Amino acid sequence: MGLSTSEQPPVRQVLVLRALGLGDLLAAVPALRALRRRLPDHRITLACSAELADAVATIGSVHRLLPTTAPGRSVPERLIWAGRPPDIAVDLHGSGAASCLPLRALRPSALLAYAEPCGPPWLPEEHERSRWCRLLDWYGLPADPGDLAITVPDTRTSAPGAIVIHPGAEAAARRWPAERFAAVAQALHRCGHRVVVTAGAGEGHLANSVAVQAGLPPGSVVGGTTDIPFKRLAALLAHARAVVVGDTGLAHLASALGTPSVVLFGPVHPRLWGPPADGPHRVLWHGDPDGDGRPGDAHGQQPDERLLRITVEEVLDAVNTLPPGPARRHRLTGTDG
C-alpha cells in the first residue's frame, strides 16, 4: 500500500551558491549539469542574480532560482531560504570560509566546498570550469568540464551571419582600446561583412563610438542603455558568423553556443578563463607562457599592458582563420557566399 499524499517523503533539496555574473554562471554549467545528472531525485536551487533568470532557464539543469545579490563579486551576507534545511549545499562561489557562511547558516545536512576540512585543495592556476568539476569529483559526483553547451533560444535575430564585436568589459584592464575595435570593424565592413557592435548597460557611448569610427551604417549597435535581454543576445551570437570579444561574459556565451570567436586576453592567462581548446576559437594573449597565470589585475583601472600588445592586424588575421562553426547552418550573404 502506497503512502498518502500527506505521508510522502519530502523532496530532497540541493542549494547551489553562484551569485556572480553571466560568464561565471556559464563557467559553472558543467558542474550544474553534473549535479542534475548525479542527483536525479533532488531539486536543485541556484542562488544567483534574478537578472540571470533567462540564462539559468536555458542551462536546463536548475529547477529554481533563488534571487540573491551582493556588491561586485562579494559574497551575499544572507540567503532567504524557506522550509527545512537543504539536504546538500554546494559552494560554487568562492575559495574560502566566507562563501560558506551563508550556506552553513542554513544548516544543510552536507556542505560541498573547498573550505571544508574534508574538501579538496584550492588550485589557483586551475581553469574555472575544471575547478568546480574537480570539487564535485572529490565528493563522488563525476563532472565533465567539456559539458558546457547550452540550447540555442528559439528567438529570431535581425542580423544572421553578422560578425559581432563586443568592445566592453567590466573592468578597464580587460578593455581593448575602442579605436582598435573600430579599426577591426571598419576593415571587416569594407570587406563586405555585416558588423554588429553589442553593448551592455552603460556601454552605449563606447559601442556608438566604435560604430561611428568604423563607418558602420545606422542600426549597427545593439544594446547600451540596458543589458541586451539574454534570449536576444544568445540568438544573435548563435547565428553569428563570428564574435570578436575581450575576456568577458560574452566570450563564455560564444563558447557555450559553439560560435567561432576571437578572444582577447590581457591581465589573466587564457588557461584560467579561456574557451575550450577543441572549439572554433582563437585566443590572443601576449604574456609569459611560463608565468603563474595571473600576471595582472583583472579589475584594474587601466588597460593591461599584455592586452595592449595585441594588434589590429592580429585580430583580423585570427578572424580570417576561424574554422566553420554552427553559425554556418543558415545561408550567409556578402563575402560568405
Automatic annotation (TrEMBL):
Span list, region Disordered: 280-304
Keywords: Glycosyltransferase, Transferase
Coiled coil: none
Annotated InterPro entries: Glyco_trans_9, LPS_LOS_Heptosyltrfase
Tree of life domain: Bacteria
Keyword set includes Transferase: yes
A family per Pfam: Glyco_transf_9
Signal peptide: none
Keyword Transferase on entry: yes
Annotated protein name in UniProt: Glycosyltransferase family 9 protein
Lineage: Bacteria, Bacillati, Actinomycetota, Actinomycetes, Kitasatosporales
